[in-house]
Write a structure and sequence with these properties.
The complex is a heterodimer.
Chain A: H1 12-21, E1 26-30, E2 36-37, E3 52-56, E4 60-70, E5 75-83, E6 88-91, E7 105-113, E8 116-123
Antiparallel strand pairs in A: 1-2, 1-3, 4-5, 4-7, 5-6, 7-8
Chain B: E1 8-15, H1 26-41, E2 50-53, H2 61-69, E3 77-79, H3 87-100, E4 106-113, H4 141-155, H5 159-173, H6 187-192, E5 195-197, E6 200-201, E7 211-219, H7 220-223, E8 233-240, H8 256-267, E9 276-279, H9 284-293, H10 302-307, H11 324-327, H12 335-346, E10 361-367, E11 372-378
Parallel strand pairs in B: 2-3, 2-4, 9-10
Antiparallel strand pairs in B: 1-7, 4-7, 5-6, 8-11, 10-11
The chains are: A mainly beta, B alpha/beta.
Chain lengths: ~130, ~375
């Protein structure tokens, strides 16, 4: 079977997940148009080029919108974070959910709990 | 290009009004609605040669419905487009082309749900979102809460104004004997309701009901010879913007801007020509966003527009005269009911809630989490 070598190997989602397992938060970048994207996909959502790569994210973000999800036992924050690279992702901001404000600066952190690993955000300027 | 303006008409409508239809399946709600829509216009099941449907709990809706209605041998055209609650307006637009080009002659658009009697939860769809699930959004309310929070941040919209949307819907429901929720509702009730995902309370959310609805569509020249007053489709437009709420470019602007522009251009109208608007109000913020994006008020002014009483009975723009998804019914996917109420009004069959001299109605449906948008402009004989 002949395949196109440009697409050989694990897909972008598996590569992104492997990065997270290794403690690295990756974003997709496009070598053709230079823009970033999240979640990772095979071709660039901005220009359609398949010439993409995964690179380490700066982790610097701003809260675009936030809600407190009221569960029976506890409440938690759900936010949309605008990253410095110009992409937006769903995540959660740590600390008291009631005090998370739109426009706050946040910094990414990889959180491991049990079998789960995810990118969350802490408030304040990068150290 | 040939204009489809007025080429197709909604000849028959069916609405089971069984908002708590214990002991019935979703398909049975749909089947009853199909029978009612055919009887409404005087056509028979054997006339149907085009089928359009989507169901929350079926991955192969066309196959199931064609079998259950016995349509198989007559079917020449089918479309099971699934974009959430807007599916049926996407399908209406597809059916306009299929009917006009004689790929079919009588099209049925239909839906059924037993969401309430089956346990009251939104039927889970096989559509995993691995980049959202780790953060446990309450689906779909958290996405709408994020949109509401951003709208409040950018435009100073208040929870009082959102509550006024729910109160207006309830005031219309008081005039509709078929509405599911008809008890008194005040701004204070909405604000004091249980917070689910800030800033949205339980009273900012649509109902959870059962229900079935169906439309029979034919070319307009045939509809003229049928039983009901003519309701031609003057225009339709659709738009898709994202799947995950994080991928929506601007949470205060929906793709309804695009679907409405297309529909109104085809119909040759502007927002000021619209006599009544039926918009998919899954949450109070939806009505506000759509009033802005459909062009009834400027961006950011939806809150003031609603608080002025404009969309309540007696206001300048009758909106969701059946009570909407907030107070009439919301069986999982509500989109088809925006068309049912628009047709009822244009036929002058809306009883106590009838809008005087209604000639042009707008129906707008939303799917997913502000993902898909579809707008239809319906008229009367006089508008052709």
């Amino acid at each position: 079977m002949t395949t196109d070598a440009r697409f050989d190997g694990p897909g972008p989602q598996a590569k992104w997940r492997a990065g997270l397992d290794d403690g690295v938060f990756l974003l997709l970048t496009c070598r053709a148009c230079g823009r970033y994207a999240f979640p990772p996909t095979v071709c660039c959502v901005h220009c359609g080029s398949p010439d993409t790569a995964l690179v380490q994210a700066s982790g610097i973000g701003t809260v675009y919108s936030a809600t407190t999800v009221r569960a029976r036992d506890h409440s938690y924050n759900l936010s949309l974070i605008d990253l410095a690279e110009g992409v937006r992702m769903m995540s959660s901001v740590s600390g008291d959910p009631e005090t998370v404000r739109i426009g706050e600066r946040v910094m990414a952190r990889i959180e491991r709990k049990g079998d789960g690993v995810r990118v969350v955000f802490d408030r304040g300027e990068p150290a | 290009m040939t204009s489809l303006r007025g080429a197709v008409s909604i000849a028959g409508i069916g609405n089971t009004r069984r908002w708590n239809g214990t002991g019935r399946t979703a398909f049975e709600q749909l089947e009853e609605a199909a029978v009612l829509a055919l009887e409404d216009c005087g056509l028979k099941m054997a006339h149907i040669d085009g089928l359009y449907c989507a169901l929350s709990g079926s991955g192969l809706p066309v196959l199931n419905v064609a079998e259950r209605l016995g349509l198989g041998s007559n079917l020449r055209h089918a479309d099971g487009t699934m974009v959430g609650g807007a599916s049926f307006l996407f399908q209406l637009r597809s059916a306009m082309s299929a009917l006009a080009t004689r790929q079919c002659d009588v099209a049925l658009v239909c839906y059924g749900s037993n969401q309430l009697s089956a346990g009251g939860r939104l039927a889970p769809m096989p559509d995993p979102q691995p980049f959202e699930e780790p953060y446990r959004p309450r689906y779909p309310i958290s996405a709408y809460a994020l949109a509401a929070a951003r709208h409040m941040h950018e435009y100073g919209t208040t929870r009082d104004q959102l509550a006024d949307v729910a109160v207006a819907a309830r005031r219309w429901a008081h005039r509709n004997p078929d509405a599911f929720a008809r008890d008194e509702l005040t701004r204070e009730h909405v604000l004091a309701s249980r917070m689910i995902s800030d800033p949205l309370t339980k009273a900012d959310c649509c109902l959870v009901t059962d229900g079935g609805a169906a439309l029979v569509l034919t070319r307009t020249e045939r509809a003229r010879d049928l039983r009901q007053p003519l309701v031609p489709v003057l225009g339709a437009g659709v738009a898709v913007s994202h799947r995950q709420i994080a991928q929506m470019p601007d949470l205060t602007r929906t793709a309804a801007e695009k679907s409405a522009r297309e529909a109104m251009a085809q119909a040759g109208i502007t927002p000021s020509d619209v006599d009544l608007a039926m918009v998919y109000d899954a949450f109070t913020i939806c009505t506000l966003l759509f009033l802005e994006d459909l062009g009834f008020c400027a961006k950011g002014e939806g809150g003031d527009f609603v608080a002025s009483g404009a969309i309540s009975p007696g206001g300048s723009l009758p909106v969701n005269t059946n009570g909407g998804g907030l107070s009439c019914n919301h069986p999982g996917m509500y989109g088809l009911f925006t068309l049912i109420e628009a047709v009822t009004q244009l036929r002058n069959q809306a009883g106590e809630r009838q809008v005087e001299a209604a000639q042009i109605a707008l129906a707008h449906a939303n799917g997913g989490v502000l993902c898909s948008q579809a707008t239809a402009i319906l008229g009367t004989e006089a508008t052709l």
